[in-house]
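Subject: design request, 415 residues
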């Protein structure tokens, strides 16, 4: 064994992510809020799952450590009401460690069904009551601040009186004026809201915007002498939802929202599994098992009829596949050392084995003999030079990687 191969694993990767870190990036006790069964279903290309699949997904949420889930708008239809009530009973009957949340407009008609479900299910419900707060939304709706304040206060009062835990949601927070937000936040605090939910409704924010908005909100809360919590809800229109969600936690948000596979309106929301994956790799979820993360994604995709892109991190078909000769050779050399830790990281920033997957080596137009030898041995076939040459020749003449069936055809043709 060479000297380099006997190095401790800690010496094989210099982690710039950890260089000069000043303490823990994200405090302990932050919460993950799953919006798959509410905001996720607003994607125009998904199906509203049957109740059986919704129940399955609740169990997967519990298995990956989701703290709370928004499971629908019970005031929107009778089916939505029935599904929400059934899911509450599933959580109660199986003692799933998930808090239940519903969404609704700042109108009594949306709040009252939440109160009824809370009473019938015998459980505390969190109500996320929302209204637009940005100038552009006000102009489109012909609203003014006084109207927004009045509607919001009335809705919060109905919910608090009905025994709900209220989260006040300002839609399009990231494009709203500070004086308007200050007035709305103070009103919500005075009327008994337990949370303020900051929304990047159209995916406008950058990390600087996240930091500035959360800092501002914390100052309003402190000025009111309150301890209400801050939620962050982000969309992905600029492709920044994931980094914004992590940044929000670092800046002081107590709860971050996401959906399975990032499904949601337009290009979607922050992807919950990628939030968890990244925090796990940062060493911030020491006590949280992610063994079910793949199953959570698979069941969510199946429930809503979602086709996962082949290059999607973690769950995509190509997430851990390579047919490039140099890359495959490095992985194979690591495996030949008997070091699976090394093989799982030499050409992967995400260890496949940590999440129930494995590195895969294919054969294509950029492959070398090592790819072919590895594939053959994996499938119980002893490589010979004529066989390796024949497979490589076939691969070099194709514009795409060979399928397993095509490789087997080449094996059969050589005999």
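Subject: RE: design request

Done. Sequence follows.
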């Amino acid at each position: 064994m060479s000297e380099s191969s006997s190095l401790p694993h800690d010496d094989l990767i210099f982690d710039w992510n950890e260089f000069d870190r000043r303490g823990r990036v994200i405090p302990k006790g932050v919460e993950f809020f799953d919006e798959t069964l509410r905001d996720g279903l607003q994607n125009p290309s998904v199906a509203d799952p049957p109740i059986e699949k919704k129940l399955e997904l609740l169990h997967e949420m519990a298995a990956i450590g989701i703290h709370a889930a928004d499971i629908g708008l019970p005031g929107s239809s009778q089916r939505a009401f029935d599904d929400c009530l059934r899911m509450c009973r599933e959580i109660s009957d199986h003692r799933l460690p998930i808090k239940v949340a519903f969404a609704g407009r700042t109108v009594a008609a949306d709040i009252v069904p939440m109160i009824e479900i809370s009473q019938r299910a015998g459980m505390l419900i969190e109500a996320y009551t929302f209204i637009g707060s940005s100038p552009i939304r006000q102009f489109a709706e012909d609203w003014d601040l006084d109207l927004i304040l009045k509607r919001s206060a009335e809705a919060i009062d109905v919910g608090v009186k009905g025994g709900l835990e209220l989260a006040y949601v300002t839609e399009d927070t990231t494009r709203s004026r500070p004086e308007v937000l200050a007035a709305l936040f103070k009103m919500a605090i005075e009327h008994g809201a337990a949370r303020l939910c900051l929304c990047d409704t159209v995916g406008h924010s950058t990390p600087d915007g996240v930091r500035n908005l959360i800092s501002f909100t914390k100052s309003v809360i402190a000025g009111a002498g309150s301890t209400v919590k801050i939620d962050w809800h982000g969309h992905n229109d600029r492709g920044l939802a994931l980094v914004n969600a992590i940044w929000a936690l670092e800046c002081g948000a107590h709860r971050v929202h996401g959906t399975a596979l990032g499904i949601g309106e337009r290009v979607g929301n922050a992807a919950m599994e990628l939030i968890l994956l990244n925090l796990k790799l940062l060493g911030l979820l020491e006590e949280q098992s992610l063994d079910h993360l793949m199953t959570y994604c698979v069941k969510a995709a199946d429930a809503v009829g979602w086709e996962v892109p082949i290059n999607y991190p973690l769950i995509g078909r190509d997430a851990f596949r390579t047919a490039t000769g140099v890359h495959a050779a490095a992985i194979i050399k690591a495996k030949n050392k008997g070091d699976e830790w090394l093989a799982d990281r030499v050409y992967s920033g995400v260890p496949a084995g940590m999440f129930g997957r494995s590195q895969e080596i294919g054969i294509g137009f950029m492959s070398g003999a090592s790819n072919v030898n590895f594939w053959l041995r994996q499938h119980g076939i002893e490589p010979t030079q004529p066989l390796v040459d024949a497979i490589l020749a076939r691969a070099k003449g194709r514009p795409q990687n060979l399928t397993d069936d095509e490789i087997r055809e080449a094996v059969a043709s050589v005999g």
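Residues 321-414 form one domain.
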